[in-house]
Amino acid sequence: MKGNALLRHRGIVLVALAIIMVVLMLAVSLVGIVDFSFAQALDNLWQGISGGSTNVIFWNLRLPRIVLCVLIGAVLSVSGATYQAVFRNPLTDPYVLGISSGASLGAAVAILLGFESSFFGVGMLALGTALLTVLLIYKIASIGNRMHTATLLLTGVCFTFLATAIVSFLMVINQDKMDRIIFWTMGSFSAVSWTDVLMLLPVAVLGIAVVLYYAKDLNLLLVGSETAKSLGVDVEKVKKILLLVTTLMVAFAVSACGVVGFVGLVVPHCIRLLAGSDNRLIIPYSIFVGGIFLLLCDTLARTVLMPSEIPVGSVTALVGAPMFIYLLYKSKKRY
Amino acid sequence: MLEIKNLSYRFGEKQVLSDISLDIADGSFYAVMGANGCGKTTLLRCMDNLLEIPSGTVLLNGKDIKNYSNRQRATQIAYVAQRPLYDVDFSAFEIVLMGRNPYQRHLQNESQHDWDIVEQCMKMTNTWHLRLSTLQHMSGGEMQRVMIARALAQQTPVLLLDEPLANLDIAHQFEILGILSKINREQGKTIVLILHDLNMALQYCPKLILIENQSIAYCGDTAEGLTEENISRVFGVQPKIKEIDGKKQVVFS
Fold first, then answer.
1. Taking CB atoms and an 8 Å limit, are A233 and B131 in contact across chains?
2. Tell me, what's the pLDDT at A305?
3. How far is residue B3's CA from residue B37's CA, in Å, rounded to a whole number?
4. I want to staple B201 with a disulfide (CB 3.0 to 4.6 A). Which of A5, A13, A236, B31 is the partner?
């Protein structure tokens, strides 16, 4: 059987994707405002790991940026795939649903309240507003036990506008902190450090592990809540757990790098085109493909107009927005 | 054995079922009939605990159905909904394979045993040739047969079907009921299905539950229950019962 053969080859594909990702991480670490040779890069890596003296640009700026990029790409893609199954809607991702923007609002408020030095404080407030957004969207868009597509997307768009408007307002009345807040609304990896990586890593690992654990239930949720329940899924519990962990991951990702759109939409759909609808494939592949995708986008963002940088969110939108329009056009037949 | 005791259900202000009590014996084959909106679907959903049961109890093998985990219950009762969600990209094979979910743990993939059962169930429902197609590309009859195959793959003693004949042409109606009655005879499965065709019920379903005004109007042998009087009371139409070739038929003139 087609599906089963794909499932059997999952391990090989995952190893291949992991190798591609690591090679790419190494490759893009060589280019930038300062170029490094392959030997220099390896030497710096070795020195950094063994605690020796390292090049500041390579070890303290470029490497954490690359690692964080891969982590956030994975987190956003896995969350996107999860939202698509839980909301039974192929057009959703953390950005489209307004969850990322909701988180950015919390982060902006945290900065104004003076929590900016603590990543955790920013993360917690971002989580609070992100969860509130999910909860409201869920309540507004569910009619009976079904999710209403148009309402879901419109609610997401409204929340994005609302959160963005409030953030803009906060910026105008606090001009001294404006540049820090701008960073959250447009998405950027330009100021990340190892601290950000260490903060996000446990949340990402835990969250992705939970989603992987429920990957099969995601398939059943796609054929409808009632059917899933009749086939043995604890529907309400699984939905709550998954929405909670994905929102947690998104909030922490947004706290680290701001709002990066469309990653969670593009990546799962590209995988779906090649590997089918089985979430036991989509979720694990999303980890690596998402990482690779965002890594490439950020490399473009920081190298195309050197020495200035393009917000990474605009690079992902350049790829993601046409994809979104295409999917919307394609799904017109169905709704 | 499925026992329903004093089941009542309301949607907001509207009473849907009031004080229903039923005994569904093992291996029986019931048709549930009644006018549109009389609570047939609600009754079926309550029997599988898909709706929160507000008052009354449903006992499955003597144990309150609320005390079963979803997974345990899914190995006892299979449910086929009236309108399957067809806007998914899973192949028919993958859909039927989902029927094996209650027997698998998290992170556990399907085994050869599961695939064999799926193949067997798909052949039984004449859907094996459709295994690679998605639901969107199927006709109503094909989709319905795939859903029945999935319910069979659950290998449960009880099968609940909500209008499995909806949107089917007459040949496919015979085919589906033929399959179900064969399963009932050969495997001894208990089957409860919602039906609208009175003559189909007479021909295929030995037992009948008639629902009127949110309660049971009749429960027993189909041949005895489908009288001119009962039909006109429940549906508000004036039929005649005739014997054609020794079989009862409901006709309207």
1. no
2. 85
3. 23
4. B31
Q: How far apart are CA B17 and CA A332, in angstroms?
A: 39
Question: What single-letter DSSP state applies at residue A277?
Answer: S
CA dihedral of B179, B181, B183, B189, whole degrees rounded to 10: 140
Q: Give the model's confidence band at A321: pLDDT under 50 very low, under 70 low, under 90 confident, else very high.
A: confident
% of chain A beyond a pLDDT of 70 = 93
**Cα distance between residue A247 and residue A130, in whole Å:** 7
Rounded to 10 deg, the angle between the A194-213 and A279-303 helix axes is 160
| Cα of A2 to nearest chain B Cα, Å | 8
Cross-chain residue pair A233–B70, CB shorter than 8 Å: yes
> What pLDDT digit, counting tens, does each position of A141-186 carry?
877 666 676 788 888 889 889 988 888 888 888 877 777 667 667 7
Q: Would you say A207 and A220 are in contact if contact means Cβ atoms under 8 Å apart?
A: no
Interchain pair A223, B48: CB under 8 A:
no
Mean pLDDT along residues A183-200: 82
CA distance B50 to chain A (A): 7
B33 part of contact set with chain A, CB < 8 Å: no
ipTM for the whole complex = 0.91
Q: Does the pLDDT at position A1 exceed 50?
A: no
- B71 close to A (CB below 8 A): yes
Compute CA distances B13 → A331, B7, B10, B20, whole Å: 37, 17, 7, 18
Nearest to A72 by CA among A186, A187, A210: A187
Residues in A touching B84 (Cβ below 8 Å): 223-224, 227
